[in-house]
Design goal:
CATH class: Alpha Beta
Number of helices: 4
Bound molecules: tetrahydrodeoxyuridine
Number of domains: 1
Number of strands: 5
Shape: globular
CATH architecture: 3-Layer(aba) Sandwich
Largest sheet: 5 strands, mixed
Helix content: 25-40%
Length: 139
């Protein structure tokens, strides 16, 4: 029987199969759980102009933002590549996730999984992005 964390990581792994990553061949999937239990996924979308590439977490957050559900984000799983090292959100994605965290007044739980499926580690966003700048600072 799969627990909730394993299910979220599994959703991220499935999402990664839909990445468009012909330049890096590094397939990343993100799965984001909302307060009502729904899971929204994303995968990285690269571009021939490399610097324009979108990360999996950012794609998932964009989908959520367009449904006006940013404040409902509670938990995130990220998985990538095929190696043994857990994939951790890049700096820009930490900032993108922080927007949802501050709107929902929720310190997000972030599961970082290795592509080989053998390891994952769990962090709070406040540990990955301390002293964050967010919507509350613009008041
Ligand atoms: N990537 C993500 O999708 N999320 C991250 O947090 C780290 C990096 C993607 C961007 C690029 O398409 C590929 O991984 C290699 O950097």
């Amino acid at each position: 029987m799969m627990n909730a964390t394993q299910a979220l990581i599994e959703a991220a792994r499935e999402a990664a199969t839909r990445a468009y990553a012909p330049y890096s061949n590094f397939y990343v999937g993100a799965a984001i759980r909302l307060t009502d239990g729904r899971i929204v996924t994303g995968a990285n979308v690269e571009n021939a102009s490399y610097g324009l590439s979108l990360c999996a977490e950012t794609v998932a957050i964009a989908k959520i933002a367009n449904e006006e559900l940013l404040a409902e984000v509670v938990e995130v799983a990220v998985i990538g590549g095929t190696g043994a090292e857990p994939v951790r959100p890049c700096g820009r994605c930490r900032q993108v996730l922080n927007e949802a965290a501050q709107l929902g007044k929720c310190d997000l739980t972030i599961h970082c999984a290795s592509g080989d499926g053998k390891r994952h580690e769990t962090h709070k966003l406040s540990d990955l992005l301390p002293y964050a700048f967010g919507p509350a600072d613009l008041i």
